[in-house]
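4.2 Preliminary Data

To establish feasibility before requesting continued support, the project team ran the inverse folding procedure on a target of 399 residues. The structure was first converted into the token representation described in Section 3, and no sequence information of any kind was made available to the design step. The complete token record follows.
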């Protein structure tokens, strides 16, 4: 009887469970370790497009994802009086809102439910040390327990602690000069099914998006090259947010109150992960831990899902993990490099400093919106599956 290879995955968000799904399907003994005591079901909107959507369909979870749609019908650019300056309906492959728009926590739960029978989950613990030898990876956990595995894969996000245990300081975080705060706030009467984007002078943006839980997902972003904010306490970061938000107008007061009282304010500097290597011996990394492209690309979830599918497939196809890792790198690296190339002017063009810059941005958005609507009508008079593509990466049928 063939002994199953044991794989430990660190991180129970999106990349980790997706990898676990496919590895278990190919006959691996999979364990996922998660630092949190339970699934982290919070978070903001995610959209699953192209190759990610194709893989979700192969996993049998596409219908569940569509059923958990946020209900968002598109994006509106608004001014300080809440008047609509431009409108982008949620149709087509190039829209801000995709058909498969889902709250992060809902996607995490769907992935957990479809893997919990075949994947072992360890909640409330994390990896504290790694010792590799020619045959195994010896792991020590935070509860002082020890276990050996054939492979270790880090999938625990952009600030991955497992990545540091494997690669040290070799991978770099490239800060793009943008900070963002995300939090969930109560819904009020003036909120609609539209996402509303408001640009304030001083390089600031407020974005309010509806969800399917009866609340609103809010974000506030601003430009700054001051990287010291990341080292501050939660209360200090809240003071920074309130200072930056002061005088913004529109929903300023509402967000100011929420920042003061909300216990679930997530604040971070937007960064890309740039790593020369994704693997070292029997250990490696995928998803945001390996190649976070930033939320500015809208492709982080797709990269996580695609990377997990391809890595599991290559491991199933090769007898030796070294060959699987090389084949994975050959397929995945060009796709990652393409996604990580931010368009010229991002994020600065979307965060103008002056009042005149805000007017120009809203005017340009209005012009683009009129052309966008015409383009959408053209798309929907032809192929209805325009948003179900495989991007520019091949998805082999490993089965």
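Position-by-position output of the design step:
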């Amino acid at each position: 009887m063939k002994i199953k290879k044991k794989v430990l995955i660190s991180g129970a968000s999106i990349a980790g469970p997706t990898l676990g799904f496919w590895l278990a399907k190919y006959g691996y003994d999979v364990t996922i370790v998660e630092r949190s005591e339970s699934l982290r079901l919070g978070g903001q909107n995610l959209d699953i497009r192209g190759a990610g959507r194709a893989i979700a369909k192969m996993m049998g979870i596409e219908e569940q994802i569509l059923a958990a749609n946020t209900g968002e019908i598109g994006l509106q650019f608004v001014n300080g009086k809440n008047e609509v300056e431009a409108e982008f309906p949620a149709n087509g492959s190039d829209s801000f809102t995709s058909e498969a728009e889902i709250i992060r926590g809902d996607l995490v739960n769907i992935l957990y439910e479809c893997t919990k029978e075949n994947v072992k989950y360890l909640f409330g613990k994390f990896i504290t040390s790694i010792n590799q030898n020619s045959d195994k990876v010896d792991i020590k956990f935070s509860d002082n327990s020890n276990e050996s595995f054939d492979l270790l894969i880090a999938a625990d996000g952009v600030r991955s602690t497992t990545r540091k245990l494997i690669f040290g300081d070799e991978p770099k975080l490239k800060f793009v000069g943008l900070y963002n705060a995300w939090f969930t706030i109560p819904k009020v009467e003036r909120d609609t099914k539209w996402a509303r984007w408001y640009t304030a002078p001083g390089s600031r943006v407020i974005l309010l998006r509806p969800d399917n839980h009866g609340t609103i997902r809010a974000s506030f972003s601003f430009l700054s090259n001051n990287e010291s904010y990341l080292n501050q306490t939660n209360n200090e970061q809240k003071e920074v947010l309130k200072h930056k938000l002061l005088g913004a107008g529109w929903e300023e007061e509402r967000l100011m109150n929420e920042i003061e009282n909300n216990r679930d304010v997530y604040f971070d500097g937007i960064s890309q992960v740039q790593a020369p290597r994704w693997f070292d011996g029997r250990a490696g990394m995928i998803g945001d831990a390996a190649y976070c492209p930033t939320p500015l690309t809208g492709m982080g979830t797709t990269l996580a899902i695609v990377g997990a599918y391809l890595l599991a497939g290559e491991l199933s196809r090769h007898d030796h993990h070294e060959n699987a890792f090389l084949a994975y790198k050959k397929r995945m690296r060009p796709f990652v490099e393409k996604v990580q190339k931010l368009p010229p002017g991002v994020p600065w063009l979307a965060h103008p400093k002056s009042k005149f810059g805000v007017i120009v941005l809203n005017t340009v958005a209005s012009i683009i919106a009129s052309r966008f609507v015409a383009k959408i009508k053209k798309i929907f008079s032809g192929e209805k599956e325009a948003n179900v593509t495989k991007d520019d990466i091949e998805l082999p049928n490993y089965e």
